[in-house]
Amino acid sequence: MGEVRVEHLVKTYGPARALDDVSLTFPDGGFFGLLGPSGSGKTTLLRAIAGFVAPDTGRVIIGGDPVENVPVEKREIGMVFQNYALFPNMTVAENVGFGLEVRKVSGADRARRVAEALELVQLGHLGERKPHQLSGGQRQRVAMARAIVTQPRVLLLDEPLSALDKALRVDMQIELKRIQREIGITTIFVTHDQEEALTLSDQIGILKDGRLVRHGPPRAVYDDPQDAFTARFLGEANLFNGTPEAGGLRLADGALIAGCTGSTAAVRPENIEVSLQEPDRPNKLQAHLVQQVFGGAMGTCILDWQGESLKVIGRDQDLQGLPEQGPVWLSWDSSKTIALNG
Amino acid sequence: MSNRLLAHLGKAYLGLILFFLYAPILVMAAMSFNASEFYQLPFSFSTEWYERLWKNDEILEAAWRSVWIAVVVTVIATSLGTAASIALFRYEFPGKTVLQLLLFPPIAIPWLITGTAMLIFFFGIGLDRGTPAVIIGHVALALPYVIVVVTARLATFDRTLEEAARSLGASAWKVTMAVTVPWILPGIIAGGLFAFAVSFDQFVVSYFLSEPGDSTLPVLIYTSIRKGFTPEINAVSTIIIAVSMGIMLLAARYSNFGGEQ
Fold first, then answer.
1. Interatomic CA distance for residues A142 and A119, integer angstroms
2. pTM across the whole model
3. Is A81 on the interface with B (CB under 8 A)?
4. Right CATH for A4-229 from 3.90.950.20, 3.40.50.720, 3.20.20.70, 3.40.50.300
5. Residue B15 confidence (pLDDT) above 80
6. Do A215 and A187 meet the contact criterion of CB atoms below 8 Å apart?
7. Whose CA is closest to A3, among A19, A24, A18?
8. With contact defined as beta carbons under 8 Å apart, do A102 and B174 qualify?
9. How far does B158 lie from chain A, in Å, by closest CA?
10. H/E element, B222
């Protein structure tokens, strides 16, 4: 167990900077989600912590020990791969026991720990199966059991749920979180699925072009993304550009977003209200309703404002009074305005 | 032309190919069981030539030598070839592409030329004709086959399996033996069978590099034919063909042309 820290990590592939001076602390026992579009460097960062990627400069510290010169097999990590990478020639129990066998753990002790690990992932009865006889979700669990049975100092997950279908993915998210809490292991996982990151993580880090853009608890980052990229990448956001004034942000159509200090304001789609009558609120503007999309309990409105596309998500019952198309008012509570820099 | 006619032509063509490939072999195999020394018909079944073969020390000795040389060649060529394939698969190093390309021409170079070159080279470095020279020559011939077959199998190997094993604490050696080798085992077996066949059936290089009196079976057959053809040769040839075909069928089954077993 222990805290993981990276300091000023740089990794270049030719002219491309996969990691550009990344420094980050992954707290002991925490569940840290690394999030970013493809090519953002999140996987490179994970692989640098694992030891598969040697950084050009910078340090990797696991549980207080610098490990830049320690090979993968001596770093005491547990890793779950995107495709699970279960050994096809071994049974489930042999897969899980592999790390113990390598560590020369004796037969009886090994069998007990393998059984415990399989119990933890609720696969106690499948030890004799071969990987190809398992479902996707079961393989995922075996991969987890195999990664944690050696009691590594850190658990690294590389897009662990991306190969599962959506329903199973949600189940496995809950399961993953339960297992992680139960053993209290420092966990770092990489995902491009922002919803997954928000659900699982105590803390998230957002990468873009090899740089760490923003990190913190998911709610804090979601509520205060600080820049347009983060606002749009984590959740959805309607962006309004304008001219800052004493009272707020003056938009091109003359509307004023009160109290906004930045040059751009972002509003989450779920925080905007759509109405036919002009509302009695400070933050309001007129837009054209282009399309309504029915989605069960929630509905989505696509709107046009000054040639830009906006999105509002609301409860279906609130949206039912609106026409298919036509002019409407948008408004929101001042506390829901997110001021962005640049 | 109608499709049916094309299909019939295709079948006829295939039939002709098989006929020309196997008819001589079948005739020879049949004659090895014919009592007549001069291939006279009508055919009368006899195992006389096989019995004589069994008492012919010269042939038995050559056969035994052929077998053990082939086994030694198989072990050496398969080990070296597998190690080379894994190294080529796993590591990037300067000149890797050139090295990989250089592995293929020896398969295409006529054995007569390779054999001549080896004879000159071995003479130059002071390695006399004899069994060690034959083994080295055979290994050199068999190595590219092993590498080609094992590399084909490795192409289906998922690298993350090696990464997973390393992340679990396995040394490079342990990763290779526990994860990589089991996956490529069908390729290794197929490559080994190829190596055995290349050595066991080898005439030209053996002829150039072996000492008189130390002949392998193909060399002995050749020198016997020069003295006069006997049905004993048919008998021994039939055995060789049976063994070689068996080995190749096994190799085809194991290599499965790179597919899943």
1. 10
2. 0.78
3. yes
4. 3.40.50.300
5. yes
6. no
7. A24
8. yes
9. 8
10. helix B217-227
